[in-house]
Amino acid sequence: MAGAVGLKECRKIRGSQIRTLLDAKDFFLFDCDGVIWHGETAIAGAPSVVNALIRRGKTVFFVTNNCTRPRENYLSKFCRLGFTDVMQEQIFSSSYCSALYLRDVAKVQGKVFVLGCEGMRKELREADVPFVDEVDEPDATIYDCALLPDVKAVLVGHDDKLTFLKLAKASCYLRDQDCLFLATDNDPWHPLSDGRILPGSGCLTAALEVATGRKATVIGKPSRFMFECISSQFRGVDPAQCLMVGDRLETDMLFGSNCGLDTMLTLTGVSQMEDAQEYRKSEHSTQHSFVPDYVVDTIADFLPAFEGLD
Amino acid sequence: MAGAVGLKECRKIRGSQIRTLLDAKDFFLFDCDGVIWHGETAIAGAPSVVNALIRRGKTVFFVTNNCTRPRENYLSKFCRLGFTDVMQEQIFSSSYCSALYLRDVAKVQGKVFVLGCEGMRKELREADVPFVDEVDEPDATIYDCALLPDVKAVLVGHDDKLTFLKLAKASCYLRDQDCLFLATDNDPWHPLSDGRILPGSGCLTAALEVATGRKATVIGKPSRFMFECISSQFRGVDPAQCLMVGDRLETDMLFGSNCGLDTMLTLTGVSQMEDAQEYRKSEHSTQHSFVPDYVVDTIADFLPAFEGLD
Lengths: 310, 310
Description:
The structure is a homodimer of 310-residue chains. Chain A has 310 residues and is an alpha/beta fold. The first copy, chain A, folds into two domains: 11-65 and 222-306, 3-Layer(aba) Sandwich (Rossmann fold), CATH 3.40.50.1000; 96-218, Rossmann fold. The first copy, chain A, contains eleven helices and 15 strands. The first copy, chain A, has helices at 15-24, 46-55, 71-80, 94-105, 118-126, 164-173, 201-212, 225-233, 249-259, 273-281, 303-306, and strands at residues 11-12, 27-30, 37-38, 41-42, 59-64, 91-93, 111-115, 151-156, 180-183, 189-191, 197-199, 217-218, 242-246, 262-266, 294-296. In chain A, the strands form four sheets. In chain A, strands 1-15-14-13-2-5-6 form a seven-stranded parallel β-sheet, sandwiched between helices. The two termini of chain A are 29 Å apart. The mean pLDDT of chain A is 94. At the A-B interface, helix 6, strand 11 and helix 7 of A face helix 6, strand 11 and helix 7 of B.
């Protein structure tokens, strides 16, 4: 267990080393964007790797901070991109887990005010969590709009329909310290094409944290909650038998460390080898939790490990 | 100079103590909301105090982080609420000072992208600072919208027309490290009636800081820049001869401390005596800069000091 014995190795592995690792683990947790696909394109070889793991009896989970899609929507994406052996119960998105948290952990007695997208509302609806489903009049302001008395939680995620009024309403609801403050994830930004970026849920959470002087409870990685969701739905998920594979040191690798999992960085996404080595050399020991145990160029590097085994 | 000799006294003063202080100072800097007015209502006695100071030859300045009004608009508000002796050149708002900064300090060679309100654009226009004056198509997204090549600064303030697309565009512009990142102020929130709050510029700044991993240059209090604007426009403003009067410890008192001014908290606004005493007792010496030298219930407490002097 590299996680328990100090500095992780950040070791580039290949060939037989990968085969040994795959043999040793029963559970594989994959982040999605930057790991198995880029937007609407599967990373070359990734579908074969995932399907092969599943067919070999490994249990595969997908843990994504992307809160924009409901799970059934993810399922069709998996299928469309060639991940044909994946089933809905293997997918743990920050929206789905947020809905579970609101229903089963917080047991919110009232409505949820959502700064988020349709995918988040869909997951709340599926989980029977009541939420505010109103559209503001175009000329309404925080000075004169209605505020509902039964809002008991604010859930923040990706909201491409964000307005100032929504931000202001959320701030007002959160003045009540009994109103739960939940964020699907804390991702700061996401890469788009042409060097553009998409502000992440972490931006809106930060805005509300400043307005209210409160800290949000974060559901997505690096928080442990998604792993708790997995453990409660699948028996026998032993952290020592898990490998967490991701592309972002500050979320995926830290999530793995927080949950006591071995971690693997794949270089097809946001973080690069130099970033990992920088954290490894850091004098701040908290940053050591961002360091992976293993590094691969791409998860397609798993493929040779399956050869000759069929 | 209380500011220079360690812990400030946070002393409630009245009567002859106030008269001695008013005699000793030549320059009075007032915050506006919570100090001389609440929204559209002058604080009782405040117009008499301000007019009396001016008539007695004191120089009075108004330093406000409220970026929503252009100065000429402030002037009519001063007049409407009875502050009839105030002139436009005494008013230093964070919008006005931001325009000066962009023109005279940063000397921006390009356009400014504004997350802000009409008052901010008006001040930029007055100062001949070019800015992006476009309205987004209702269905434009960050995936397909145009980004202008000549944006060289992003200015963030109060934006009640904020949309997700504006936030995303600002984030993209700021990916260029040569693009200046400026905030009118860092106020976290503002009190409204009925216990409601208005998210402040500090919220939007925090959102962009998270999206870009950069820190904004802040123009408003507690930054020293507004005092530099005053000093450059009025000769002989000696910090030792100044009293800064405000209602918010984290902005107004810290601004005074940062500029080497004596400070006075008035209890008609956000911060209360207990807050000040809490900071005074703090083990974190940085918080001692939030502590005022003097405290009054209201600036109407100045009135007796003028009696018998006419």
